[in-house]
Specification:
440 residues; alpha/beta; D-Maltodextrin-Binding Protein, domain 2; 2 domains; ten-stranded mixed β-sheet; two-stranded antiparallel ribbon; 14 strands; 43% helix; 17% strand; globular; TAT_signal; SBP; Extracellular solute-binding protein; Bact_solute-bd_prot1
Length: 440
């Protein structure tokens, strides 16, 4: 499934987020934790492993399961895809009913919803025993960590980067490395690209799709070492008013809009054709993921682009560490078989070809010379794993993926209406209200 479709599905997940969080209360305390220290755990398991996956990543998991089942005859993996918009609610219902799958492949941003309610198995010691543990994506692991214990392992990554059209950059005299040194340099580059002609724009963004917008814009705040949310999970509040990086990011986008550096279509862009203008050669700089920039491209377009980390106001860089974590629910019947399948999914041969489907591996050590030659656009996140991030919170869907949530409202008020001060105050109130509600 394309990166476009994955991002659009984020908007649908918002409604499920509120019901899912409420439904998780008290859902898991009666389910026993598997004994992961038992001799032979995760080795030579037998029987059936029931795996749930997101419909958005079903294609890749289907192939993985087929390969695993063909590789041995002791263990059979049965895959059940679940619509992204229904995933949280359906899993919460299964946990309350005591009938859980053995393994869940879950949107990493939703991991904490279940970890907070003690619904997943502690995998800390198992992960530490992996010979490549220090090569795994820290952003994914961070979303699966609570009180220094880890309850999920990364499987695949969906990362946002800043992509450059090299032909337009050369014509405008823009150096991508200089452009990402800060917002001032980014605007200088944008004005130079826009000056190339009436049909050439510097930038494009999905201004009417809350999930896709959050995916590509938030890293420009994280690159400054701060976030929109502050505090530990369960006691969080918004960090909007007084956050210089949030203000600078909104001012940047207001300038891009006000100076006509981005097309007017950004106002109503719902990501239904996300990236078509960039792939059409009309946009100089474009924040998006590998799937939209490369996998969906035709002909030789990928040869004409390059990517960098999304910069902060004064440089630095970050990217959204989206994708999937694999977690074993408490109460799993075949947790040993589930862990054996997880280890297979993380083996280098399986990780190597994830970019063919528009995803990035979660192991830095996959990026050898052969990988870089085969997938030349997939190594930037792997070379900068420390820069990947996503906020660990119980309210992500409600804030960033729900169409009437505070994120989209704040952005549009500041960027399109020009009311920055009002947008910041409104945003602070919105973040605080939702976080307070979600943490009850």
């Amino acid at each position: 499934m394309s990166g476009l479709t994955r991002r659009r599905l984020l908007a649908l997940a918002g409604a499920a987020g509120l019901g899912g969080v409420a439904g998780l209360t008290g859902c898991s305390s009666v389910l026993p934790a598997p004994d992961t220290s038992a001799p032979g755990f995760g080795e030579d398991a037998t029987g059936t492993v029931r795996v749930w996956c997101r419909a958005a990543t079903q294609d890749g998991l289907t192939s993985l399961v087929e390969q695993f089942n063909a590789s041995q005859d002791r263990l059979t993996v049965e895959l059940t895809p679940v619509l992204d918009a229904q995933y949280v609610t359906k899993l919460a219902t299964a946990i309350r009913g005591g009938e859980v799958p053995d393994l869940v492949d879950i949107d990493d941003i939703n991991s904490m919803l279940f970890i907070y309610r003690d619904a997943f198995t502690d995998l800390t010691d198992l992960i530490a025993e992996l010979p490549y543990a220090d090569q795994l994506s820290p952003g994914h692991l961070g979303l699966a960590t609570r009180h220094d214990r880890v309850y999920g392992v990364p499987y695949l990554a969906d990362n946002s980067l800043l992509w450059f059209n090299l032909e337009l950059c050369e014509a405008a005299g823009v150096d991508p490395d200089t452009a990402v040194q800060g917002f001032d340099q980014l605007l200088d580059a944008a004005r130079a690209i826009r000056a190339l002609g009436p049909d050439t724009y510097a930038w494009s963004f999905p201004g009417n799709n809350t999930g896709a917008l959050g995916f590509v814009v938030q890293p420009m705040v994280w690159a400054a070492g701060t976030d929109f949310i502050t505090g530990e999970v369960g006691a969080q509040s918004g960090h909007i008013v007084g956050n210089d990086a949030v203000r600078a990011m909104l001012e940047l986008y207001r300038t891009l809009w006000q100076e006509d550096l981005a097309p007017q279509s950004c106002f109503s862009d719902d990501a239904s054709r996300w990236g078509s203008d960039f792939r059409g050669g009309r946009i100089g700089m474009f924040p998006t993921n590998l799937a939209v920039a490369v996998t969906s491209a035709e002909d030789d377009f990928p040869d004409k682009i390059t990517s960098r980390l999304l910069p902060g106001p004064d440089g630095g860089g970050s990217f959204f560490d989206g994708g999937d974590n694999m977690c074993i629910p408490r109460g799993a019947r075949n947790a040993s078989g589930a862990w054996q399948f997880v280890k297979y999914a993380l083996d280098l041969p399986q990780q190597f070809d994830l970019p063919a489907g528009g995803y990035t591996p979660v192991r830095a050590d996959v990026a050898d010379d052969r990988f870089r030659e085969t997938y030349p656009h997939a190594s930037v996140p792997l070379d900068n794993l420390h820069a990947g991030y996503a906020p660990s919170t119980l309210a992500y869907n409600l804030i960033y993926n729900q169409p009437d949530g505070p994120w989209l409202s704040m952005f549009r008020r500041a960027v399109f209406d020009g009311d920055l001060e009002g947008a910041l105050v409104q945003g602070q109130q919105g973040w605080d209200a939702i976080l307070s509600q979600a943490q009850v």
